[in-house]
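Handout, section 4.2: multi-component inputs.
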Amino acid sequence: MVNQQIAQKFYKTADLLEIMGENPFRVRAYRNAARTIESLGRDLSEMVAQGEELTKLPGIGKDLAGKIREIIETGTFSKLKELEAKVPPGLIELLKVEGLGPKRIKTLYDTLGITSLEELREAAAKGQISALPGFGKKLEQTILKGVVLAKKEGRRFRWAYAESFALELVRFLKKAKGLNQIEVAGSFRRRKETVGDLDILVTASNPEKIIEHFVSFPDIKTIISKGQTRSTVILSSDIQVDLRAVEEESYGSALHYFTGSKAHNIAIRTIAQKAGLKINEYGVFRGKDWVAGRSEDEIFSAVGLPFIEPELRENRGEIEAAMEGRLPQLVTLPEIRGDLHCHTKWSDGQNTILEMARAAKGLGYSYIAITDHSRRLAMIKGLDEKKLELQAIEIEEARKRIPDIHILHGIEVDILEDGTLDLSDEALSHLDVVVAAIHSKFKLSKTKQTERLLRAMDNPHVNIIAHPTGRLIGEREGYDLDMEKVMEHAKDRGCILELNAQPSRLDLNDVNLKLAKEMGIRISIATDAHNVDNLRFMRFGINQARRGWLEKKDVVNSLSTKKLLRLLHSKKG
DNA sequence: GCCGTTTTCGGCCCGACTGTTTTCAGTCG
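Output:
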């Protein structure tokens, strides 16, 4: 039973309680607990096995701690079973329909006996819904449309993908007259790896004109709402965009509010409450008096805290860290001195060594490691020992042609099923850097997969484990791994873990990065570039690194060439 | 159901928008 499954059971319980019309605060308690569990980074099963006190986790009290133990022992818990017996299973998916919440769903079930999306669609089509008290024609139409969208599921988009739309919208909105400030807030600003919708905040002399301009954006499929200060639309690409306009004096409070996360906001507001203040998106108030709100700095200082970077605002300890003056100084792109994972035409890359090196130099880097695939990946011409020697000659030539960037000769060597490597130790011993990665046998059992990685790290030549979990965002779960064991071993063996900056990978994720940092493991933020343009993926890696609380000192490719080489060499020692 | 240098009980973030309403409930973020 992994944390994710336990969290899902609590989310489901919350949904069911909500439909049953239960106390909304109890519902929230389950969701808070689920959130805590999701971002824990430690295995609850193990914590329970070791007899650790679960109630010290935020949002988990005596009752939920007991339920967690029950889930781990029996696979579920009696309260959930009870609810599942009472509520038809189809009702939960109705929550995904726009305009339907727990109250209306309960009404529809009680009066029309609706228990599924299909029954909902039929009833709406027949006009039965608009006949109910409290429901009308418009709502019926919204529901009808909502049923179709609900079937598509609540899609989330990769950050990099969302960014292209965000930039386009900002460009478009900036054409509107009277626009002053503009910022894309929400999970986009927090640099979350996936973004559900875009929240754009503006200040303007005449907000209504901006709203008018906004809804004239050519790529809009549906206008969901359009008020005086807010509007919501759906783009043809199915991305939802919310626009909000506020006064200048509220810009900071609105930015803070719309940046979220919700959990962070609630925590901040609770602190404010205790200090006799009220925070909403218009400002910080003492009684009816506005006391702050122009900038986010004002909001934080009103509650006695230093500025907290958006990437940290998940209520995962950032508020406590801020109170105690130990917020991290998050790593930035200009601090990056090089890239330790990229490919060339020698395997499946599109550019030559020289072209990659020149591009890296163009980015202001001091070094770049050429790490093509090893022979196991035959279909993309992975390198064997012989080719590796030939490549060394070409690297030597490239070094002479571009003396002002240090070209490291490396490899992305395949980790075989038993944890041995695809190339001989002798061959690896001549390289400047060895990056090891899993590219096959993703379905091994957790024990075997973990053991495989541990054995690879035992090899004295292995410096870095690339994309450690192998997950592809929205496409493929990572391999089944005991991440704690992997990290402990990385620590013992002096192994570096990679944060792969490919927008579809971002592997390690934020939670694991924070865990690694806390354990004192160093991270290589690397693009895995397959052409010169890909080298620019570094900024996506930086986004993720910042969400993982990483500082310059945690990131090996912020080191000078000299220090980096010393570090890489020390592993072999 | 959680939580506590005001509390172990009584709170729990807060406001906009919509559609259905003659003053507000429900939903959403």
